[in-house]
């Protein structure tokens, strides 16, 4: 169960559906809900020209106005018995979000995806990309057109096929990340009648090199190589999904061959996925790297809501 949820909201009139759903979800989880609204930093140099306005008075006026905008939602939360409070900050949205998430030790951050600057722009704005890289806890970026609750949920995991003995498997940090991805995906899937889907994209490392090294390699040899590699992925995938089978008896498992950023986006469109649950750093992630190349390439290729999860031990570069 989640204990503390942080909802970032800039315009409650435009985000009424998201606020309603967040209240319901927090109630289901019996979680505290904190609403964060971030106002632009006040230009103090401009106020110096206006002798009758003190910066602290202007800030207090802005804060009061934003409090009034959210008051009806705070009243609604109280009537529902939710533990809910409002934080109003000045500055950059991503910076204040990460700082508050760290200060409050929240379990989940929810934010509506910013409206793209133009039709061909990336789904995720600069602010959202900062959050994807630096948010210390699971981050739900909601696309406005997505249904709430989500109808079709896809969890993407990457299993290690090396060292499948139980001791190695249980000590693998990749195992923790996969279980967090699947557990959170299952949380959200409880609200929909549709079965949860899990995708694992796999490949035969060096298949093209094998073709190059051995010109006499037959198609049967390559087929046996593929079957051998797939068998390892199949064993690792079965183990990763074992704990989820009881909660999701109709679990749908998809195993396309290819690079994730190539094979997953078409699946999202075909299956009408409205929430992708994924990790942002793989097992090969380096210290000081805040998002993996595969995750970044995949995020640039999708058009749906995303629940992005960091691996255990991730440290945000932003200080609380």
From TrEMBL:
Superkingdom of origin organism: Bacteria
Keywords, comma-separated and alphabetical: Cytoplasm
Record flagged with keyword Cytoplasm: yes
Listed InterPro entries: Universal_stress_UspA, UspA
Endpoints of the signal sequence: none
Principal location listed in the UniProt entry: cytoplasm
Compartments, record wording: Cytoplasm
Keyword Cytoplasm annotated: yes
All copies of domain UspA, residue ranges: 1-143, 180-310
Pfam families (alphabetical): Usp
Any one GO CC term of the record: cytoplasm
Recorded family membership: Belongs to the universal stress protein A family.
Function of the molecule: Required for resistance to DNA-damaging agents.
Protein name, as recorded: Universal stress protein
Source species: Thiosulfativibrio zosterae
